[in-house]
Amino acid sequence: MAESAGAERMSVPFLILAAVTLASACTAMLLRGLVHCALALAVTFAGLGALYLALGAQFLGLAQLLVYVGAIAVLIVFVILLTRGGETAATLLSPAPPWVLGILVSAAIFAILAWAIIHSSAIHSVGSPASPPSIRQLGDVLMQDYVLPLELIGLMLTAALIGAVIVAMKEKQGTE
Amino acid sequence: MQPLDQVFVVLKHWLVNHSPTATQPAVSILLTIFPILLVFPILFALTTVLERKGLGRIQNRYGPNRVGPLGILQPMADAIKSLTKEDIVPSSADPAVHFLAPLVLLAVAFLPYAVLPIGRNMIAANLDAGVLFFFAIGAISELSVFMAGWSSRNKYSLLGAMRAVAQMISYEVPLLLSSIAVIMAAGSLSTVEIVEKQATFSGIFPHWYVLTPWGLAGFILFMIAATAETNRSPFDLPEGESEIIAGYYIEYSGFKFALFFLGEYLGMFAISGLGITLFLGGWSAPFSFLTWVPSWIWFFAKLLGLIMGFIWVRGTLPRLRMDQLMNFAWKFMLPMALVVVVSAGAWRFLPHGVTRWLVSSAFIAFSYVLLARGVGTRNKIARRIYRFAE
Fold first, then answer.
1. Which residue in the set A35, A69, A70 is minimally distant from B150, CB to CB?
2. Minimal C-alpha gap between A59 and chain B (Å)
């Protein structure tokens, strides 16, 4: 009883957010201007973040906003501008084979994900959903149980950063 | 509790209880949002006059003094002017994005106020991850600046937007790191809890984080980064009038320009509010014998103090060059902010007493001298060589 009431209360914001996310994702695919696509994609990211927030996963939702809207979307936009793709010269619609391929790939990915979700134990085992973990719990787990993977990821990201800087520096010397 | 301190909270509860039951949630939400939408734009109007008068005083001139007594009605005149001006959209501009950019900027400028406690029990949304929310919303404003600059289809505005985004990304790092020091010390991401941790007293002095060695260094770093985040002078390269006219909002006129202006000042107030919350004890009184003053008065007094600081800095310092800006962010601010985090950690785990003061200060003083000297020797100030003009 309580669950159904909760689900009903959730449904209107959920529907709005889902509609916004899906619509902006479609827009990102259908628009011609690359910058428009990137901006629509940013709306999709924000919608996903809002969905996480609506589900009570505060940290995940806000991290999604911070990383995807604040960093990834800006990165995409920068790449488009720096590679001269931002000019609105209308790019012709790609010929059929890539379209078919794209549909096939996305359908395959959707099928795999759907199969995994339907067959996962998490979806069946939970009778009443536990309250989402607090940020304190997340931090404790990250810093105690998963501290080694965390440090490894940090090391990898640092290496990637240094590598990117080195690549950029070499290129600069070459042009001069 | 003093009645004056909670007057707005009590008033809201009274109004909600006297409205029909069906509309109570809506009324409650409206009564939470409406004051924010009202108070901060009024503060913006007030600040524009204060800023122009303050700058005038610094530059040895009068400033606005014609509209109303002492020029206090100047914002009304400005509002009427911007409302009646023609809204010009460049014919080659991207109309949809050009229209949306100021709206997105303004919406994003208002959102952070949801997590700022402007008084005891006076917060719109007491989120578990309030500080994170603030920065997540701040990240969106970069995109709106880019939208404005790109959609105008003007070289200057695009340059301004690129500068703004680069600057905001660079200075977000020290801003976040200096906040992390406070989050570590308070052990919470909730703005309410951070303020409550600081609102206790030993003797007559409060436990504000700015009164610790790492807190002072962190606060200074935070405010420098905040100045850069909000594109204020001396970090106003994105809109440097002498170089790129007005940066990303050249092609905006009339009320859209006013919206940009409002958004920029709201961003400045919000980030000052976060600085107050993190370092200056939020709504808590500076001395234990002053706790009878209502909490919201303290918040706004601190806010006005910081705004005065911003105006003072704007009137005093010249604009940086782009390379100076980036060098300062990555070679000085970032290492310094990391040292502040380490110093805050040392403060947290050392026993109370003189040792932790000494250790924490030594960390900061040592690295400050080292970094300042490192930056100083790299870029010796030499006689400027003019390549293109005699």
1. A35
2. 7
- Smallest CA–CA distance, residue A56 to chain B, in Å, is 11
Average pLDDT, stretch B335-356? 86
pLDDT digits (tens, 9 = 90+) for B164-178: 888 888 888 899 999
Best residue in B183, B189, B191, B193 for a mutation probing chain A (most A CBs within 10 Å): B189
Both structure tokens of B187: 């052990």
Contact residues, chain A to chain B, C-beta under 8 Å: 33, 35-36, 39, 42, 46, 49, 58-59, 62-63, 65-66, 69-71, 73-74, 77-78, 81, 86, 88, 134-136
Provide the sign of the torsion angle of the four alpha carbons A143, A149, A154, A155, taken in this order: positive
The pLDDT of B301-329, averaged and rounded, is 86
Give B32's Cβ-side CA count (13 Å radius). Answer: 18
The pLDDT of residue B248: 79
Q: Which residues of B194-211 are buried (b: 16+ CB within 10 A; e: fewer)?
A: bbbbbbebeeeebbbbbb
Q: Which two tokens stand for residue A78?
A: 């920068």
Is the CB of B97 less than 8 angstroms away from the CB of A78? no
Q: Please determine, for the modelled complex, whether the ipTM score is greater than 0.85.
A: no
Mutate to test the interface with B, among A24, A45, A62, A140 (most CBs of B within 10 A): A62
**Which residues, at least 6 apart from A60, have a Cβ–Cβ distance to it below 8 Å?**
A52
Residues of A in contact with B169 (CB under 8 A): 71, 74
Pairing label, strands B205-206, B201-202: antiparallel
Distance CA B2, CA B291 (A): 10
Cβ–Cβ below 8 Å for A62 and B128: no
Report pTM. 0.84
Please give, one letter per residue, the 3-state secondary structure of chain B. CCCCCCHHHHHHHHHHHCCCHHHHHHHHHHHHHHHHHHHHHHHHHHHHHHHHHHHHHHCCCCCCCCCCHHHCCHHHHHHHHHHHCCCCCCCCCCHHHHHHHHHHHHHHHHHHHHHCCCECCECCCCCCCHHHHHHHHHHHHHHHHHHHHHHCCCHHHHHHHHHHHHHHHHHHHHHHHHHHHHHHHHCCCCHHHHHHHHCCEECCEECCHHHCHHHHHHHHHHHHHHHHHCCCCCCCHHHCHHHHCCHHHCCCCHHHHHHHHHHHHHHHHHHHHHHHHHHCCCCCCCCHHHCCCCHHHHHHHHHHHHHHHHHHHHHHCCCCCHHHHHHHHHHHHHHHHHHHHHHHHHHHHCCCCHHHHHHHHHHHHHHHHHHHHHHHHHCCCCCCCCCCCC
Q: B140 touching A, CB under 8 A?
A: yes
Confidence of residue B145 (pLDDT cuts 50, 70, 90): confident
CB contact residues (below 8 A), chain B span 42-101, against chain A = 94, 97
Residue B168 contacts residue B145 (beta carbons within 8 Å): yes
Q: B143, A134: Cβ pair inside 8 Å?
A: no
In A, which residues are within 8 Å of B139 by CB distance? 65-66, 69-71
